[in-house]
Structure formats: structure tokens, C-alpha cells
Amino acid sequence: MGYDYCFVCGDKNPHGLKAKFNADGDSVWASFHCEERHIGWPNVQHGGITSALLDEACAYVPLNMDLVTVTAELNISFKTPVQVGETVRIEAHPTKVNKRLILVEATMVNQAGELKASAQAKMLVLSKTQQAAMGIETQA
Ligand SMILES: CCCCCCCCCCCC(=O)SCCNC(=O)CCNC(=O)[C@H](O)C(C)(C)COP(=O)(O)OP(=O)(O)OC[C@H]1O[C@@H](n2cnc3c(N)ncnc32)[C@H](O)[C@@H]1OP(=O)(O)O
């Protein structure tokens, strides 16, 4: 199992974000605390970190349905900077579920409920053959 080393959620990745995702019905959520090591511009969370968290949330939605996917498209709107010291909540839910394509929407809000960023993703369901070809190992 390689998931322990996922950059966003893996427990064993020493450089990772170690975000823990939880299921709530067909939605998923996680909390994340922005620290100095997550910045791009001074005091502002790097957009790539924001994107990675939203991408991960979008991948956890199909995972919550026992589907292994990759992100085919990810569109992000950065609304307000996430600042060092802020804790944000990332949530995602499916908007359309087809056999091969899962459409997902995700949001990132701070503790005051201010919208920091939102995302729409197209998640492509991988067959076992595709997973093997990409070297993705999944739990039996
Ligand atoms: C324990 C917890 C751990 C948890 C660990 C969780 C880790 C999660 C990580 C976060 C998620 C990621 O970042 S994943 C990494 C970032 N993403 C990637 O690397 C993906 C790279 N791209 C690809 O591999 C490929 O482009 C695919 C698989 C997305 C599509 O390849 P393909 O060759 O088109 O696939 P194929 O099977 O032939 O096509 C399937 C169908 O989807 C359609 N299709 C393909 N792309 C798109 C698209 N953008 N929008 C709409 N439809 C599309 C095709 O036309 C086709 O339609 P039809 O002909 O069937 O009608």
C-alpha cells in the first residue's frame, strides 16, 4: 500500500500535509491549519497547497464510494487568501455520478465561514487494468 506516502493525506510522508479526511454521507471533509512552511507570498498560503487540498478532497469523494479515480480536470477559484495561522475546512460532494465520470464540487472556508476557494473536478474512474498500468496499488 502506497497511500501512506500520499503528499496530502499520508501519515508517513515527512514532507506531506497529513490532512485527515472524514466521510459524512456522500460528502467528505478535512481541517487544515496554515503554517509558515505552506506559504508562497509572505503570510499567504501557496495556491498549490490550496489546490492540492481541494484536489485530494475531490478524490476522496469517489474513494468514499469505493471507486479509484484520477483527476482529469480541476478548476479552482481562489476567492480570498488563506493566511498563516488560519484553520480552514475543506468539503467536497458529488454533483453527478456516471459509470466512468464523477463530477465533484469542493469548497475551502475559514472558521468564520468565509469562502477561501472553490473547485469543480472531473474524476475519471480507473478500471483494475488501468490502476495496474499506472502502478496504483489498492487495498483488496
Ligand atoms: C486510503 C486513501 C488514499 C487516498 C489517496 C488519494 C490520492 C488522490 C490524489 C488526488 C487525485 C490526483 O491528483 S490524480 C493525479 C492527477 N491526474 C492524473 O495524473 C491523470 C492524468 N491523466 C490520465 O491519466 C488520463 O488523461 C485519464 C485517465 C484522465 C483519461 O485518459 P483516457 O485515455 O482518456 O481514458 P479512457 O479510459 O480512454 O477514457 C475514459 C473516458 O473518459 C473521457 N475523458 C477523458 N478525459 C476527460 C476529461 N477531462 N473530461 C471529460 N471526459 C474525459 C474519455 O473521453 C472517455 O470517454 P468515453 O470514450 O468512455 O465516452
TrEMBL record:
Keywords: Apoptosis, Cell membrane, Cell projection, Cytoplasm, Fatty acid metabolism, Hydrolase, Lipid metabolism, Membrane, Transit peptide. It catalyses: hexadecanoyl-CoA + H2O = hexadecanoate + CoA + H(+); decanoyl-CoA + H2O = decanoate + CoA + H(+); tetradecanoyl-CoA + H2O = tetradecanoate + CoA + H(+); dodecanoyl-CoA + H2O = dodecanoate + CoA + H(+). Its EC number is 3.1.2.2. The keyword Cytoplasm applies. It is a peripheral membrane protein. InterPro entries: HotDog_dom_sf, PAAI_dom, THEM4/THEM5_acyl-CoA_thioest, Thioestr_dom. It is an enzyme of class 3 (hydrolase). It comes from the Bacteria. The keyword Cell inner membrane does not apply. One of its GO terms (molecular function) is hydrolase activity. This is Acyl-coenzyme A thioesterase THEM4.
